[in-house]
Amino acid sequence: MITQHPVSISVHTRYLKEHSVAQENRHVFAYTVTISNHGLENIKLLSRHWLITDGHNKTQEVRGEGVIGEQPTIEPGADFSYTSSAMLETDAGTMEGSYQMISQSGENFDTPIPLFVLTRPGALH
């Protein structure tokens, strides 16, 4: 039986000027993801899949267990937030992907992470 798991994802980004070296094509961005469980049962984040694309259309694919070393369980009505980073060779790019999750009742499901933009302030006019 397939059910809908009402999970929402929000992302906030910022350019890390102190870790970036534009002359060396090294642009570092932090992103904070908040995962909200609007369902009726606990959900557990098992793994992640990211597509990170820079301004030259070069794409990196990243897969791994959990996030920031954790596989959090998110209770109904609760949120889980974490901050991580990405490095691009250009001063603008995008990220998108999905989280692979499992419900308390044992159903595996994917939660899409909508495309979001990484950009150095002033890079886009």
What's this model, at a glance?
This protein is mostly beta strands. The chain is built from no helices and eight strands.
Structure description:
- Helix content is 0%, strand content 60%.
- The chain has one domain: Immunoglobulin-like (Sandwich).
- It has no helices and eight strands.
- Strands 3, 4, 5, 7 and 8 form a five-stranded antiparallel β-sheet that branches. A three-stranded antiparallel β-sheet has the order 1-2-6, with no helix packed on it.
Features:
125 residues; mainly beta; elongated
Strand segment count = 8
Percent range of helical residues = under 10%
Poorly predicted tracts of residues: none
Largest pleated sheet: 5 strands, antiparallel
Radius of gyration: 16 Å
Please name the CATH topology. Immunoglobulin-like
Structural class by SSE content: mainly beta
- The DSSP helix count reads 0
CATH architecture: Sandwich
Count of domain modules: 1
CATH classification class: Mainly Beta
Approximate shape: elongated
Quote the average pLDDT: 94
Give the terminus-to-terminus CA distance: 48 Å
Summarize the topology.
Layout (H helix, E strand, L loop, with lengths): L6 E9 L11 E11 L5 E12 L4 E7 L7 E2 L4 E10 L3 E12 L4 E12 L6
Antiparallel strand pairs: 1-2, 2-6, 3-4, 3-5, 3-7, 7-8
